[in-house]
Specification:
By secondary structure, this protein is of the alpha/beta class. It has three domains: about 200 residues, Amidase signature (AS) domain (Amidase signature (AS) enzymes, Alpha-Beta Complex); about 120 residues, D-Maltodextrin-Binding Protein, domain 2 (3-Layer(aba) Sandwich); about 60 residues, no CATH class. It has 13 helices and eleven strands. The chain has an eleven-stranded mixed β-sheet with strand order 1-3-2-4-6-5-10-11-9-7-8, with helices on both faces. Helix 3 links the parallel strand 2 and strand 3. The protein is globular and about 55 Å long. The relative contact order is 0.15. InterPro entries: Amidase (IPR000120), Amidase_dom (IPR023631), AS_sf (IPR036928). This is Amidase. One of its GO terms (molecular function) is catalytic activity. It comes from Oricola cellulosilytica.
Length: about 400
């Protein structure tokens, strides 16, 4: 895989130019994407590399974000040929930092559950996950060093886990969602993909202007082993991976504490779908009314569910969500991060499902920063993702702990 940090170091040392780095990514896309299907459209090949701290970094952008120079379809035939006049805020930030938006990556329909055509670079018989399937696959296949995705349920962490790359879902609203097609305004979150944790931290730092570098920790972190109340939904391979990682972390000096899931967080996970579908029914109301025939069955069913939800049920869901956020904050009084599965198992075989977000949706609801750490595999050699969850607003510590764990593994 391509490394953001290595590319920037090579450019600074004069070993390559920004233009050469971008050309390398374009050549790799041309050579590999025919088999993977991560990209929908590429930017003009004659575009001049940007000027800024991310100059030379080719970035794939999920086709849920507006781009002025490429079509934005939101994964739906409803928007075939749609050309926004301006960039989404995160795309504008990329360009301002000097990154080259090299192309639009495949998303599922409106970033929901209907599978798209991208395959998993680790094994093409398996799903790459969703909804940020193209972004995760583009990084995993070594075509680009970084990509932008989004998460409303598990759409950054899960595909990162399935494809064996770093996925970083920041604290809610750390990055703007302006110009991103809304599905659930209280949970939609911009996320990043990169080869390693240090690469994701570098991109996040240079984009946001905040110190989000995954610097080495001075001492081993305090880790809460969070099996959750749905532990039985993790496969034996995933359960073994979590236990193995916890033991490796303990052997390396980490203080491991078993954390029992509070009832408030279990309730939060349970109401995620109520809140999501109610908001989606409003956000996609016109698409549903005027273009229902162009929507997938799974999306129509979710929107119908949202329409049938009484406002009082939604308001109660929001109250439960607030209680869950408070309970989530309290978990970190004596620990630095939580350790939990990124997904129930490795990527399922076939392209008829994008997998389950059951181990992600709670943290999207609460807004906590999450990082997928690669490094474990199942008996068939497919990646098993380990999820690090941090305290809200403590993204740097979450990234640092994830890097420490990545290097420990």
């Amino acid at each position: 895989m391509l490394s953001v940090c290595q590319i920037l170091e090579d450019i600074q040392a004069g070993r390559k130019t920004a233009a050469e780095a971008i050309s390398q990514s374009r050549a790799l896309i041309d050579a590999r994407d025919g088999d993977i299907g991560a990209f929908l459209e590429l930017a003009d090949a004659d575009a001049t590399p940007g000027d800024g701290p991310l100059a030379g970094i080719a970035v794939g952008v999920k086709d849920i974000f507006d781009t002025y120079d490429m079509a934005t379809r939101y994964g739906s035939p409803v928007f075939d040929g749609h050309r926004p006049p301006v960039d989404a805020a995160i795309v504008a930030m990329l360009r301002a930092a000097g990154a080259s938006v090299i192309g639009k990556t495949v998303t599922t329909e409106f970033a929901f559950m209907h599978p798209a055509g991208t395959v998993n670079p680790r094994n093409r018989a398996h799903t790459p996950g969703g909804s940020s399937s193209g972004s995760a696959a583009a990084v995993a296949a070594g075509m680009v060093p970084a990509a932008i995705g989004s998460q409303t349920g598990g759409s950054v962490i899960r595909p990162a886990a399935y494809c064996g790359v770093t996925g970083y879902k920041p604290s809610f609203r750390l990055f703007p969602t302006v110009g991103m097609k809304t599905f659930s305004w209280s949970m939609d979150t911009v996320g990043l993909f990169a080869a390693k944790v240090v690469d994701a931290g570098r991109v996040a730092s240079l984009l946001s202007g905040r110190d989000l570098e995954a610097d080495p920790l001075r001492e081993a972190p305090r880790i809460g082993l969070y099996r959750t109340s749905i532990w039985d939904q993790a496969s034996p391979a995933m359960q073994n991976a979590i236990d193995s990682v916890a033991q490796s972390a303990a052997d390396a000096g980490a203080h491991i504490v078993e954390i029992e899931e509070p009832d408030a967080l279990s309730r939060g996970r349970d109401i995620h779908t109520i809140v999501q579908n109610f908001e989606a029914a409003m956000a996609l109301g016109d698409e549903h009314r005027r273009h229902a025939a162009k929507l997938s069955d799974v999306l129509r069913e979710a929107l119908d569910d949202g329409y049938s939800t009484r406002p009082q049920s939604y308001d109660n869901g929001r109250r439960i969500a607030r209680q869950a956020r408070k309970a989530a904050t309290a978990l970190f009084n004596d620990i630095d991060v939580l350790l939990t599965p990124s997904a129930p198992d490795a990527a399922p075989v076939g392209l008829t499902s994008t997998g389950s977000s059951i181990f992600n949706r709670l943290w999207t609801l609460t807004g906590n920063p999450c990082v997928n750490v690669a490094g474990r595999v199942d008996p068939a050699g497919m990646p098993l993702g380990i999820q690090i969850v941090g305290r809200f607003g403590r993204d740097k510590l979450a990234l640092q702990a994830a890097r420490w764990l990545e290097e420990t593994l």
